[in-house]
UniProtKB/TrEMBL annotation:
InterPro entries, A to Z: rRNA_ssu_MeTfrase_G, SAM-dependent_MTases_sf
Gene Ontology MF term list: rRNA (guanine-N7-)-methyltransferase activity
Name of the protein: Ribosomal RNA small subunit methyltransferase G
Family note: Belongs to the methyltransferase superfamily. RNA methyltransferase RsmG family.
Pfam families, per database record: GidB (PF02527)
Organism name: Brevibacillus panacihumi
Enzyme class: transferase
Cellular component annotations (GO), alphabetically ordered: cytosol
Amino acid sequence: MKREEFAQALLEKGIELSAKQLEQFDQYFRLLVEWNEKMNLTGITEEGQVYNKHFFDSITPAFYFPFDQVESAVDIGGGAGFPSIPLKICFPHLKMTIIDSLNKRMGFLQHVADELGLEHVYPVHGRAEDRGQEPAYREAFQVVVARAVARLNLLSEFCLPFAKVGGHFIALKGAEITPELNEAKKAIKTLGGKTRKVETFQLLEDAGERNIVIIEKVDSTPKNYPRKAGVPAKKPIL
């Protein structure tokens, strides 16, 4: 996927990128490749693949959810900045917090924000289980996003505590989501969520099936969630 094809594919979905935004994506790609030589950020470094499987894929939630109406968002397990940085480039008004347990990735994301001139990007080092109990972050965001971090029942415990009541948790998932959805029903309900819709689509250039799961936060998350770091993975809510 060339940059022009990327821009055209987004335009067809109602997202028009300026010359400045396209340049920001180009800069982001170059920084990703450059820093990837020093630390493991991604296994995908070919330009067309990065534009399709990382950049375009990261923006797909905006095809099904009005990010132009969102003020505060948090990306849990943000890693190399997917989906947070592509969403932030497309929607510059977003106040975007990115939480990840690897501190050196936070250094990369701060550098990206500085180089691209992105304001209101807040890389935060820490585990979701710990940060989700802190008053500064708990139930503080309109939208929580996460991409390919863990199975949905576990991911819900990582993410739903960050969403305001009335806000949403949006999970970017791969193919065959039905078993995960069934497995996660109890966790989603326990944590105050309600699944509102699931959108299934094909990535461009036959790059595979994807699913977007949109969960509304309808009740406050009980105080004992998220549990201490490591516990959710060992004893997921089933």
